[in-house]
Write a structure and sequence with these properties.
Elements (H helix, E strand, L loop, with lengths): L5 E6 L5 E7 L4 E5 L10 H7 L4 E5 L18 H14 L5 E6 L1 H12 L4 E7 L4 H10 L1 H6 L1 H5 L5 H21 L8 H9 L6 H14 L20 E6 L21 E6 L6 H4 L1 H11 L1 H7 L1
Parallel strand pairs: 3-4, 3-5, 5-6, 6-7, 7-8
Antiparallel strand pairs: 1-2, 2-4
Helix pairs in contact: 1-11, 2-3, 7-8
């Protein structure tokens, strides 16, 4: 059986050209990938959800064949949230379900907090609520050590050079070596992620997400932005691969108080950071149950 998706380019209201994988019909589900990945990280979830929903998995700005504007200022959370809003509009919808992982999770949290009218439901994988992330990056010495790469990415040019070396060997190694279920990633899978950085500026664009964050919403000092303190009313689910070497499990503790609407969290003990690829059947089962109220409208 052939895969259900096709690739297309959408021109957003901002002028950004965004490449997306698209499949299915029904309520709109936007799937936001993390670093250093691409739309392909959602291959298992598109196959599971496309019979019930319209699935749109973009290559985020800077990745793959999506435009990669030059400059750190083009990778702020405001720009990334704007991309989500414009993508929903480009799909002819007023709101969407958002499923997100890692950096996609940061964008999803910011979207539901800043633009709640756009979000029907939200599921975030291995990225905590931004208040908990900021708190732990400032006060949790173990998380500070686990997040060393954020500081490394502030160095100009050197991270890019190391990532590009030997045909992006570091990128491939970072994914497979940090996985608990290492067999989840074939060489062909890893080639998909490498190919997302074939554009000469793409790796700088992806690292600029971290550079912009440290200069903006996740700066080391000062109060949290007001939008981070708002309560989330949209039904929310967090799925967490417990053996994540970069983001520690304690980042998820005490999150329930940050929601005024339904909130649930599910831990996957035998998975690392790449939970939707390491344990796709488990993640798909959680997603299908969480989204079942919306499925009735897709029938």
């Amino acid at each position: 059986m052939s895969d259900p998706w096709h690739m297309e380019k959408l021109r957003l209201k901002s002028g950004l050209n965004m490449e997306v994988a698209r499949a299915g019909s029904g309520p709109l589900v936007i799937m936001l990938h993390g670093f250093p990945e691409c739309w392909y990280s959602w291959r298992y979830q598109i196959r599971a959800l496309a019979p019930h929903f319209e699935c749109v998995a973009p290559n985020l700005r800077g990745y793959g064949n999506t435009d990669a504007p030059v400059g750190i200022e083009n990778y702020t959370l405001d720009k990334l949230v704007g991309d989500v809003a414009d993508l929903i509009e480009a799909c002819g919808r007023e709101k969407a379900i958002i499923i997100a992982h890692d950096w996609g999770g940061a964008i999803a949290w910011a979207t539901v907090l800043q633009r709640p009218e756009l979000v029907e439901r939200i599921a975030v994988l291995n990225l905590p609520h931004p208040l908990k992330l900021q708190e732990n990056l400032r006060r949790n010495p173990r998380q500070m050590l686990s997040s060393w790469y954020i500081l490394f990415f502030q160095i100009p040019r050197l991270p890019e050079a190391l990532m590009r070396a030997r045909d992006f060997a570091m990128l491939k190694r970072a994914i497979r070596d940090s996985a608990v279920q290492k067999s989840a990633f074939t060489d062909e899978d890893l080639d998909h992620f490498r190919d997302a950085f074939r554009n000469p500026y793409s790796i700088t664009a992806a690292i600029n997400y971290y550079r912009a964050a440290v200069r903006g919403s996740f700066r080391p000092r000062g109060p949290a932005p007001e939008w981070m303190t708002r309560k989330i009313s949209a039904p929310t689910m967090v799925i967490w691969g417990e053996q994540d070497i970069a983001l520690r499990k304690e980042l998820t503790f005490g999150m329930k108080e940050l929601f005024s609407g339904p909130f649930e969290i599910h831990y996957v003990p035998d998975s690392g950071h790449w939970v939707q690829q390491e344990k796709p059947a488990v993640v798909n089962d959680y997603l299908l149950k969480f989204l079942s109220p919306m499925m009735q409208t897709a029938a």
